[in-house]
Amino acid sequence: MFKANSFAVILTLASVVALGPLSTDMYLPALPGLTTVFTTSIDQVQITLSVFLLGFAVTQLIYGPLADRFGRKPVLLAGLALFIAASLGCSLANTIEQLISYRFLQALGACAGPVLGRTIVRDIHGPVNAAKVLSMMGTIMALAPAIAPILGGYMVVWFSWSSIFWFLTFYGAIAWLLIAFKIPESLDSNNRSSLRIGVIISNYGTLLRHRVYMGYTLACSFIFSGLFAFLSGSSFVLIDYFSVNQEHYGLFFAMAVGGYMTGTQIAQRLGPRLGINTMLLYGAILGFSAGLTMVIPALINIHNLWLTVLTQVFFMMAVGIVMPQAMAGALAPFSAMTGTASSLLGFTQSIIAACAGLIVGHFHDGSPTTMAITIALMGMLSLLSFYFLVGPQRAKP
Question: What are the CA-CA distances from residue 168 to residues 19, 22, 80, 350, 386 (Å)?
Fold first, then answer.
């Protein structure tokens, strides 16, 4: 069994938090080809992404209260088991409808990772150090989605799209074994919440009325939705519009992930000195600026591969700065219901991101314009949510 505050625990938790990004990023290079495999439209293929986010969102509202009552480990292990079974189903799907159904089930299992990963970090490291540890986890887990599209692109070329889901099945099994035998339970037996519906509804009501909590949650959710808009549209923009080879798509995606990793490193080093709110404000301003730099040329019909990719790198840097700070700020006041607070944050994040993905898929006109508009809008809303609901001076660091 690993020591609770060891780097091995952080690394293991990062691997389960990465289930969501891996489940989307790894098969992005396969998306354009799935229209031919299943003889369907881009809209239908896009649903395999959006339905994942919707399933990811809804179940988070359940995992948090369950984990506050029964402990983190048993609930996380149950979610991982469902993820493994659904990933196997995805690999065997014969129709787009089957793939959509299994993707939904895969999301129901995968969302246990981020919800309970954040919760365990808050349990072990407390409200002050959680932001630094979450930034460290962000750097670690970013390695997986950086490599995933590259690996996924070559797997599509060398084998088939289904090999991606065989890999995810194996990855989930390894994660289940590590959690089962190496990670200690982090919830104090004296700090377990009731599962009565009235108590759960009351807890969610408290969170929804908490202005600062909602400010952090919306800032995190909107900046993440800008990232998801890029996930939803980038394979069609880069592969179809800019004629990037499938196996090379991951290299461009890795550049964006490099921006995210840079942002988490900046947050990890400067966050303890500058404080959560100052770092979050700087990150949100950077995200808004990057979004504007991307959308203005797109609106006047100037489309350039490197301009699109490099502006997204800076936007992803903003994501790496904003998300760990916003998560830590949102969870800090709620030690008695950390799981529930983490669930509502994840639910809000996933719902807004799913809507952003649907917008990109539905209004995609073959050019980068729709994706750029959505990313810029999400960057602006992240900054406004933090500034007016939290305020850089009103909230305690």
Answer: 9, 8, 11, 21, 35
377-392: pLDDT as tens digits = 999 999 999 988 887 5
Cα–Cα dist 396/390, whole Å? 9
- Domains of the chain with bracketed CATH: 7-181+197-390 (1.20.1250.20)
Do 256 and 387 touch, CB atoms closer than 8 A?
Answer: no
Distance of CA 296 to the CA centre of its chain: 26
Q: Do residues 266 and 316 make contact, with C-beta atoms less than 8 angstroms apart?
A: no
> Mean pLDDT over all residues of the chain?
80
- Give pLDDT tens digits for 162-191: 888 898 999 899 989 988 887 776 666 665
Tokens of 37: 């495999």
30 has pLDDT over 70 = yes
Six-digit token string for 101 = 């159904």
Reported as half-sphere exposure (CB side, CA atoms, 13 A), residue 173 has a value of 9
Q: Which two tokens stand for residue 175?
A: 């994660």
pTM for the structure as a whole: 0.72
* Contacts (Cβ under 8 Å, ≥6 apart) of 60: 111, 114, 115, 342, 343, 344, 346, 347, 350
Helix, strand, or coil (residue 194)? coil
Q: Can you give the pLDDT at residue 216?
A: 93
